[in-house]
Write a structure and sequence with these properties.
Layout (H helix, E strand, L loop, with lengths): L13 E6 L6 H14 L4 E6 L2 H14 L6 E3 L3 H4 L11 H12 L4 E4 L16 E4 L20 E4 L2 H9 L8 E3 L3 H8 L14 E5 L9 H13 L5 E4 L26 E3 L4 H4 L2 H5 L2 E4 L4 H5 L6 E4 L20 E2 L5 H10 L5 H11 L7 H12 L9
Parallel strand pairs: 1-2, 1-4, 2-3, 4-5, 5-6, 6-7, 8-9, 8-11, 9-10, 11-12, 12-13
Helix pairs in contact: 1-6, 1-13, 6-13
Length: 389
């Protein structure tokens, strides 16, 4: 393991990329760390994680990409790293931040893909610049919230996200930078994970329910959805929910999933690499979901979508359900497989809306998003760090 300690605010600014939450968030900020390390040699770039699994995944990605290693370490203390609450796959975020506030406060900037790190302000970290990269470009209202005001820099993937944060008062033009989607950079550079081995080729449906207890479709309809695909031979199904829905669990340990383990037309993945690296969103022919931001990654290529309104939400005209304009919305799941077939045949009616929605969500340019994000960080650091190779 390559370890490093922050050197304080000396001649070389130091930036820490912090990972204290689920593995899928790593892909949203690690490409920025790589771009910063490669493009600005006068800045010390470090990586800090709270689990060995996260650190191993980061090192594996760096090795696969054949980029120079970035100094990395596990945050102490070990007893807290080993603590898991309520089935979480990671240590308690707030406690880890409290234990490491002084250490993190020695960096010139801390960059994070999650919002709990805003707690550092209450823990006395005042002079360190806090940067929030986001970890998706979705519409659900939850991520648009007061903690964003604690960050010195909040990144936006595109005008939709930027304009909503500005309109709701969570950011200002100074504290927000529209940089595109760095995850696309690293995904395009990585080989895809292995695809599921189905018994024969059929159109592939990706069922991707969110973990939200009300808006997510799994609690009310999930078992019935799997049963209908198991009984119908028209489609292969990838069940890859948001990684937090069954965090840390194996399919065989979940009673509702037991009948579908090793089914020839159903592949279950509750959080493996393929569930987070866009392998499934690129491979699937049809998207079936509710409020997950992964629909936007799926729509990098316009394809049929079908949405599940399990909560009975009055969604029309609500920007938190903006993505439900990209395909039919169901208020029940009777005859679901027929509805999937109908969504396929009716897809031309939604292609224009999908293309427009993708353009609103991602401001992609010739300059890679990860480089634009790194530049935004450098511009907000002190002038001594702005010299680029």
């Amino acid at each position: 393991m390559i370890t490093a300690q922050p050197k304080g605010r000396g001649d070389r600014p130091s930036v820490c990329f912090l990972y204290i939450a689920q593995t899928h968030q790593i892909l949203h900020s690690l490409p920025i760390a790589i771009a910063l390390a490669e493009g600005w040699p006068d800045i010390d770039v470090h990586i800090a994680t709270t689990t060995q699994e996260h650190l191993d995944y980061v090192r594996e990605l760096l090795e696969t990409l054949k980029v120079p290693p970035i100094p990395s370490r596990l945050l102490p203390p070990k007893w807290l790293r080993d603590l898991r609450l309520k089935g979480s796959a990671t240590p308690p975020k707030a406690l880890m931040l409290a234990a490491n506030a002084r250490r993190l406060g020695r960096y010139d900037a801390v960059v994070t893909p999650e919002r709990t790190t805003a707690l550092l302000r209450k823990l006395g970290v005042r002079d360190t610049m806090l940067v929030y990269t986001q970890h998706g470009a979705g519409d659900r209202g939850g991520p648009f919230e007061p903690r964003l005001k604690q960050f010195d820099l909040v990144m936006a993937a595109g005008p939709k996200q930027r304009d909503r944060m500005l309109a709701e008062g969570w950011v200002t033009p100074r504290t927000c930078a529209m940089i595109g989607y760095p995850k696309f950079d690293i995904i395009d550079a990585l080989p895809p994970s292995p695809l599921p081995a189905f018994d024969r080729a059929r159109p592939v449906v990706l069922y991707n329910p969110h973990f939200h207890p009300v808006l997510g479709s799994w609690p009310r309809w999930g078992r019935r959805i799997l049963e209908q695909f198991a009984a119908d031979e028209r489609y292969n199904l990838i069940f890859a929910p948001h990684i937090r829905l069954f965090e840390g669990a194996a399919p065989g340990t979940i009673e509702a999933l037991a009948p579908f383990v090793d089914h020839p037309r159903i592949h279950l993945d509750l959080g493996g690499p393929a569930a987070i690296d866009m392998t499934y969103t690129r491979a699937a022919d049809i998207y079936l979901g509710d409020v997950s931001s992964q629909v936007y990654e799926f729509l990098r290529t316009p394809k049929p979508c079908l949405f599940l309104n399990a909560s009975g939400a009055a969604w029309r005209g609500d920007e938190s359900f903006h993505h439900w304009r990209y395909g039919p919305v169901l208020d029940g799941v009777d005859g679901l497989v027929d509805a999937v077939a109908s969504a396929q045949s009716g897809h031309p009616d939604y292609v224009e809306a999908q293309a427009q929605g993708f353009a609103e969500s991602f401001d992609l340019r010739e300059t890679p998003s990860s480089v634009r994000a790194a530049q935004a960080i450098v511009e907000r650091l002190s002038p001594r760090s702005r010299r680029r190779r």
